[in-house]
Specification:
About 15% of the residues lie in helices and about 30% in strands. By secondary structure, the protein is an alpha/beta fold. It folds into 2 domains: about 80 residues, Rossmann fold (3-Layer(aba) Sandwich), CATH 3.40.50; about 120 residues, UDP N-Acetylglucosamine Acyltransferase, domain 1 (3 Solenoid).
Length: about 220
């Protein structure tokens, strides 16, 4: 049986609302929100603090003995998700994977710190999902796939078996990646693309079959 935990969330936009709803469903509570911008708190009744200064201000008010859990609600693919995860861990916060009760994760799969597996998603046998990855709604990560850190697998994506995805890749909604394809670091896969061959690092690919349209600077 899940024991209720006290969470803080960094990020206060749509993805924060999704996470907060999931945490509430599990019986957890959200203590505070953080964002780099002075925006409205995504969770009614929960205070929002701005930037590292706000984080330090909030932290100074806390009981050092109380366990705190951290979740990063930054949906766009950026190294910042990993940076915030490391910030939380450096202050002793716990950042276990968060798995929706309507998701399926095989017992032989491995999930890194801060991973989020949302409703109706599947992480199949012997898949490895790196730190701070998002497996969004209805996404499928098939057997023996390996995902690096900070990957965002958008809603409705299908990764077929043995796909290898490097760090900080964004795979757009409804995309399909065929078996044993490798995707280089920092690449972007366009929504609805069908990826039939390896994708270079930092490339953007779109279409059916997917083709490179734009190289970009490696993250």
């Amino acid at each position: 049986m899940h024991r209720p935990n006290s969470f803080v969330i960094w990020g206060s936009a749509g993805h924060a609302k999704v996470l907060a709803d999931l945490l509430s469903m599990r019986g957890d509570r959200v203590l505070a929100m953080f964002d780099n911008r002075p925006v409205r708190s995504a969770v009614p009744g929960v205070p929002l603090y701005v930037g590292l200064e706000g984080f330090d201000q909030w932290l100074a008010q806390q009981d050092a003995c109380a366990p705190i859990f951290g979740a990063v609600a930054i949906g766009h693919c950026t190294p910042a998700r990993l940076d915030i995860l490391e910030l939380f861990k450096s202050h002793g916060f716990q950042a276990p994977p968060i798995v929706h009760p309507q998701a399926s994760v095989c017992l032989s799969a491995r999930l890194g710190d801060g991973v989020q597996v949302l409703a109706q998603s599947v992480v199949s046998a012997e898949a490895v999902v790196g730190d701070a990855c998002i497996i969004n709604h209805r996404a499928s990560v098939d057997h023996e796939c390996v995902l690096g850190a900070g990957v965002h697998v958008a809603p409705g994506v299908t990764l077929c078996g043995e796909v290898v995805v490097a760090d900080h890749v964004f795979i757009g909604a409804g995309a399909v990646v065929l078996p044993r394809v490798q995707i280089g670091a920092g690449a972007v896969i366009g929504a609805g693309a069908v990826v039939t061959r390896d994708v270079p690092a930092a490339a953007t690919v779109v279409g059916v079959p997917a083709k490179v349209i734009q190289p970009k600077e490696v993250l």
